[in-house]
Structure formats: C-alpha cells, structure tokens
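Subject: design request, 198 residues
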C-alpha cells in the first residue's frame, strides 16, 4: 500500500485552544432557549457560565463598529452571528443599560436613548448582556470555554434542540483572535487563574 496525495493545497486551521490542560469531566449541559431563532450553532470558544442548576449559559457580547452619540437608540455591532435577542438588556456605557427592541446582523436597537450625561460607546467597545435596565453588572460570570461547536437547531432552523451536552474547558491557553465572540475585561478577570488569553 502506498501513500496517495489527494490535495496539494488547503487552508491552515488555526485552533481556538493553543493549550488545553483540563476540561470538566463528563461535560456540561448548555441551555439552548436563549438564542435567536436564526441561530443554528454555537461556535467553539464561546464563554460559558455555570447557571448552578445543572444548566450552563452562553455569555453574550458584541463589539461596536461605529462611534455612537448621546441620544442614539441604535448601535452598529459585530459579529453578524451575535446571540442577542429582543427583550434582553445590553450595557451601553457610562453606567447605563437598556432593553433591546430590535436586532439584526449589524445593528442593535434599544429602548432608552444613551444619556447626554454619559460617554457613548466608541467604535471597538465591547458591550455585554446585563440583568435588567438600569443594571450595569455582567449578567453571567465566565466559568469555562466551550470546547467544540454545538448544534442548537436542525432542519434549517425549524427545530430547537433540547439542552445540549458539550465539552467545557476550565484550564488552558486560548488564542483570543480566534474566539467567535468578544471577551470583556471582566470575563478575563473571572478566568484569570485558569485561562490564559494569548
């Protein structure tokens, strides 16, 4: 038997994890009822929170792609496959938060305009989910990182799967540039003792 070369070129795959030292034995169950109706999968590298009831939550963030101004009620954001939904609350800036009224792949609209007395988020700012307006704390603290991409809907987007079993990394090194969603400074602090962001 001889070696047969079938392909001469291809894309180099850059892994999320540069070093994987420990994951949770037996895996975790990821809660799937918090995602937009268009979401088919959650990509490896998403940050997870231990909900304390056997179910784990995916931490939601977006990055602002254009400077906002006071009195704005719409933000331009990325990534296009962010996980925010209408009715959730997003931290804006300067100690304010607001309920989301409309989402798209490039924008998030919200109920309460950015106050003139606070600094509006600038391009590059990472915004996160918070409990309820006007709360300003991160809704979920980071406890682990999703090890592999998981499917949350099948048959296109027709069928929402039940809570999904997944691997969760609790100790290692990850390439921050390869993470599918943006990471806040608070989440990095939550994981400092166990996860290194390179």
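Subject: RE: design request

Done. Sequence follows.
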């Amino acid at each position: 038997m001889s070696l047969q070369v079938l392909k001469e070129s291809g894309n180099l795959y850059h892994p999320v994890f540069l070093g994987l030292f420990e994951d949770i034995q037996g895996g975790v169950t990821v809660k799937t009822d918090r995602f937009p109706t268009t979401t088919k999968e959650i990509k490896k590298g998403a940050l997870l929170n231990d909900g304390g009831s056997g179910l784990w939550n995916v931490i939601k963030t977006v990055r602002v792609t254009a400077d906002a101004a006071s009195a704005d009620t719409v933000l331009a954001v990325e990534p296009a496959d962010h996980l925010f939904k209408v009715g959730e609350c997003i931290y804006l800036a300067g100690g304010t938060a607001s309920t989301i009224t409309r989402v798209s792949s490039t924008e998030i609209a919200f109920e309460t305009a950015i106050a003139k007395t606070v600094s509006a988020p600038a391009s590059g700012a990472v915004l996160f989910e918070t409990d309820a307006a006007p709360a300003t704390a991160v809704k979920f603290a980071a406890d682990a990182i999703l090890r592999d991409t998981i499917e949350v809907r099948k048959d296109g987007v027709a069928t929402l799967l039940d809570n999904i079993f997944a691997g969760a990394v609790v100790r290692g090194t990850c390439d921050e540039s390869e993470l599918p969603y943006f990471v806040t400074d608070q989440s990095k602090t939550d994981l400092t003792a166990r996860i290194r962001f390179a």
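The CA atoms of residues 41 and 151 lie 4 Å apart.
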